[in-house]
Amino acid sequence: MSDERTETAERVDAPAGGTVTQRLEAVLMIADEPLSVVSLATAVGAPVPAVRQAIETLVADYDGAAGGPVRGFELREVGGGWRFYVREQFDDLVADFVGGQAPARLSQAALETLAVIAYKQPVTRSQVASIRAVNVDSVVRTLLARGLITELYADPETGAVNYGTTDLLLQQLGINSLDELPPISPLLDDGADGFDELTA
After folding, report:
1. How far apart are CA 39 and CA 81, in angstroms?
2. Cα-based distances in Å from 104 to 100, 101, 109, 144
3. 61-104 tens-digit pLDDT
4. Is the pLDDT of residue 198 over 70?
5. In angstroms, rounded to a whole number, what is the distance separating the alpha carbons of residues 50 and 6?
6. Alpha-helical segments (H) within 30-136
7. Which of 51, 3, 5 shows the shortest CA–CA distance to 28?
8. Is 87 in contact with 59 (CB distance < 8 Å)?
9. Can you say whether the dihedral through the CA atoms of 21, 27, 33, 36 is positive or negative?
């Protein structure tokens, strides 16, 4: 009986703004970092228990538990939050595709973002955005795809991913360690103090 009430409620809700499950999929599709159940509940305007149930439904659906096909992606819990990931067996396929699509040169925005990460790592995407005063979501994705930065770890409290540079960046720069990067202070004017304060 409870299942019938849930299905009826979702059907009634669907014309206005989609079901809880549909809204969750929409939000998770554009998430760059794992989102907690509470954050997802706030985003989709639904009670936490309903969001938990919807997540379980989505996980089972993508895993083919209900008799459907196993999807090429999965909904995985990492660092206390939920996010879409490519299934492990397709990692090489996606890496080859992204590598083949990557442009030969980085944009100015990508270079600036890469510099912030290189000097301030480990650093979250939101911290980089605060320093640059612009949204860096797409730039971070580009740098990840190029293999110049990597996800180091997720904050256990917020679920925010901390980024750092890779050995590939050192190779591209022709240096052996980050200690060989030039001091940042001479390259900044009046903003130098603020740059340091944002990390503290």
Report:
1. 9
2. 10, 9, 15, 15
3. 999 997 889 999 999 988 788 999 899 899 889 888 877 665 55
4. no
5. 9
6. 37-44, 48-62, 91-101, 108-120, 125-132
7. 51
8. no
9. negative
Q: Would you call 174 exposed, middle or buried from its count of C-beta atoms within 10 A (0-12, 13-18, 19+)?
A: exposed
Among the listed ranges 44-48, 81-85, 170-174, 176-180, which one has the minimum average pLDDT value? 170-174
Tokens of 41: 């509940």
Task: Please answer whether residues 177 and 184 qualify as being in contact, where contact means their C-beta atoms are separated by less than 8 angstroms.
Answer: no
**pTM over cut 0.70:** no
| CA distance linking residue 108 with residue 20, whole number of Å | 39
- Residue type present at position 103: P
What does each C-alpha distance from 137 to 30, 112, 124, 129, 176 come to in angstroms?
Answer: 10, 13, 11, 9, 28
